[in-house]
Structures are given as structure tokens and as C-alpha cells.
Write a structure and sequence with these properties.
Elements lengths: L1 E10 L3 E4 H4 L7 H8 L3 E4 L6 H15 L9 E5 L11 H8 L7 E4 L5 H14 L5 E8 L11 H4 L9 H8 L2 H4 L5 E10 L5 E9 L7 E2 L13 H6 L5 E2 L1 H23 L8 E4 L4 H11 L10 H4 L6 H11 L8 E8 L3 E8 L1
Parallel strand pairs: 4-5, 4-6, 11-12
Antiparallel strand pairs: 1-7, 2-3, 6-7, 8-13, 9-10, 12-13
Length: about 350
């Protein structure tokens, strides 16, 4: 039995935020952002639009593409690090709003940038166990609430037209290395059991190493603190992610290629056999570095980070959907997935389309 993706969809906010707009509220420029990340624009959610809403939009599209209805789905897996509520996760919101039967279990997982990859492995495991036959897998994140948007949020999405104050400008600039990287968005796939041995998920390899979580984590808003969030934490910027960019880059361009080689060995194929490798869209320089380490030509490594930025758990399903839609991924192709994110969590999977 194999796990086959029978449909995909995406949920993208309408607000397109180009690099030049960010230059209005902090010390940055289109050239500065492109040079360091390859990003040209990203999408920002409206106030009140969270990862659950984007995930539901993507899920509805995926169901249509798979020619399935809500009643056909046995379980839901939602990968996000930015749920609408601290708890519960987004799974129950999807179940209630989309009208799933209460006998449909939901799994909320939070492996950050590796969330969709881990979710794909979980969906495959549930199917191979024989417990479920059709699973809705969603990966979606909204990053804008992380940032100090009281200092210019409305300007970025066109709700207000003003100049930020010098104090706001300076405060925003403190976080520009992170603000410029992230966007909001989500993707979803329907994963089904199939007896067709020529298609489906071939293998996956997942890894975790928590020995240096400080390289990419959120220092504040956690239950080690008493209370878990305070005004002082907010004033200090502790709810904003902390990132050691050089260390993350170093880990990404070494760990992801290692994972791809490992999963190829497990599946009995060569790296060169991969037709399309979908890499987590964190930074164009990382994508290029991983491709170089693996010896894969640019035509085998599509990217869309220039249009979306880093949407965390949303990057892989959004990219997969676009590649299927535009014909980059065709039936019979060997498709690779790889990602690395906070934890550190990383891994790779191979899928025969």
C-alpha cells in the first residue's frame, strides 16, 4: 500500500507587500533584501485572518482538486507554529468550520519549517497502519503577528498612509533581519491509500537535534516563565523570534543535503534520479547552497520564495501545488521534499508522482 497525493490547494492572503513598502517603515531597501534573501515580495494576512483561515481555504481547494468531499476524509493533520489560539490548535477549528464529523480526529503538530514534511510522514504512517485511508494534510502560518506591527502594520497593507515616527522606524529596524524574510500563506494536500505500487511516498527520513535551540527560537511567551507572558517581555521584544542567521544557514546547507542522500539510500535511488527537489523556501541562498551540495542543476530545483517569502509550514505545499499546476511536476516523476527548521527539526522524503 502506498500513500498518494490526489489533490492540492493553497490559501494566500490578498495583500501583496513589496520590498519597497517595508522601506517606508524601517531602514531597508529592495536591493538589501534581494541580495540577502532573494525575496521580492510577500503576502500579509488581514487583521483577523489567521493560519486556520488560510489553511481552510487551502483545504477546500485541495478537496476540490481531489474530487473529494468532507465526508470522505478520515483524519486531519494541521502543521503550524502560529495557531489562531495558544490552545487548542487549528485542527478543531478546521473540523467545526468545514463541517467534518466529530469522529474525524485532528492532529496538530508543530515542527515549524519542517511541519509539512513531518505531517506527510505522519499521514503516510496512519495510512500504512491501516487505521485511515484518506487524510487532509495542511501546512499554514501567519508571521505578521510576531512583529512589532503597531509601528506600521496598517501602512504595509494599505490601510493607512502616514510616515512612521523616528522612534517607530528605529524599533522596526531592530527586527529587519527577520521581518523581511517572512510572509503569510498555507497549502494543503489530500493523501490517500492506493494499491498502485508505481506511485506514492517511497521513503522519508526525519531528524531532530535540540542541543542548540537558541539559534532559532522564541525566548518569551512560554510556561517556564511566571506568568508565561508579561508586559516587560513584550517591551523587550521577547515574543519576536531570535535567529542566529549564520548558524541556521550553516546547518541548513549541510543537514538538508545529508537528509536527501539518506532518503535516497533508503529508497535505493541516486540523488541524480530526482526529477524535482522541493526545498523549504527560507532563503534563496540556502536553496542554491543545498542544490550545489547535491550537484543538482537549477532546472531541478524550483523556487517561489521571491513571491511569497518564508511561509514556514506553508512553503512546501504551496510550492508543490504550483509545480503540479504549471506542469513542472508530471506523473511518474521522482519528487524530493526537504526542510529544516527550529528545533532543530529536519528531514527529507521521496515521492513518485
Amino acid at each position: 500500500m502506498r500513500s498518494v497525493i490526489t489533490g492540492s490547494g493553497i490559501g494566500i492572503p490578498k495583500n501583496v507587500v513589496k520590498n519597497e513598502i517595508l522601506g517606508r517603515i524601517m531602514d531597508t531597501s529592495d536591493e538589501w533584501i534581494r541580495t540577502r534573501s532573494g525575496i521580492e515580495q510577500r503576502h500579509y494576512a488581514d487583521p483577523g485572518q489567521g493560519s486556520a483561515e488560510l489553511g481552510i481555504e487551502a483545504a477546500q481547494s485541495a478537496l476540490r482538486a481531489a474530487s473529494r468531499e468532507v465526508k470522505d476524509i478520515d483524519a486531519i493533520v494541521f502543521a503550524t507554529m502560529t495557531p489562531n489560539h495558544f490552545f487548542p490548535g487549528n485542527g478543531p477549528l478546521v473540523q467545526a468550520r468545514m463541517g467534518f464529523d466529530e469522529a474525524t480526529p485532528t492532529f496538530d503538530i508543530r515542527q515549524q519549517c519542517s511541519g509539512f514534511l513531518y505531517g506527510l510522514d505522519l499521514a503516510d504512517s496512519l495510512i500504512r497502519s491501516g487505521k485511515h485511508r484518506r487524510i487532509l494534510l495542511i501546512g499554514a502560518d501567519v508571521h505578521t503577528p510576531f512583529m512589532p506591527w503597531q509601528n506600521g502594520w496598517d501602512i504595509t497593507i494599505g490601510r493607512e498612509d502616514r510616515q512612521v515616527t523616528p522612534e517607530e522606524y528605529a524599533e522596526n529596524t531592530k527586527y529587519r533581519d527577520r521581518i523581511v524574510l517572512f510572509g503569510d500563506g498555507g497549502g494543503a494536500v489530500v493523501v490517500e491509500a492506493s494499491d498502485d505500487e508505481e506511485r506514492g511516498l517511497l521513503a522519508s527520513k526525519l531528524f531532530t537535534n535540540g542541543s542548540n535551540i537558541e539559534s532559532l527560537y522564541v525566548a518569551g511567551v512560554g510556561f517556564r516563565h511566571r506568568p508565561y507572558v508579561t508586559k516587560q517581555q513584550i517591551d523587550n521584544g521577547d515574543p519576536v523570534p531570535t535567529m542566529e542567521g549564520r548558524e541556521v544557514f550553516k546547518q541548513a546547507v549541510s543537514k538538508m543535503p545529508e537528509a536527501v542522500r539518506a532518503v535516497c539510500k533508503t529508497a535505493g535511488v541516486e540523488v541524480s534520479d530526482i526529477d524535482v527537489l522541493l526545498i523549504h523556501q527560507a532563503n534563496l541562498r540556502i536553496i542554491e547552497g543545498v542544490a550545489k551540495q547535491l550537484g543538482l542543476p537549477a532546472e531541478k530545483v524550483p523556487h517561489n520564495i521571491e513571491r511569497y517569502g518564508n511561509t514556514t509550514a506553508g512553503t512546501l505545499p504551496i510550492l508543490f501545488h504550483e509545480c503540479v499546476t504549471n506542469g513542472r511536476i508530471k506523473p511518474g516523476m521522482l519528487v524530493g521534499f526537504t526542510a529544516l527548521g527550529s528545533g532543530l527539526h529536519w528531514g527529507a522524503a521521496l515521492y513518485r508522482a
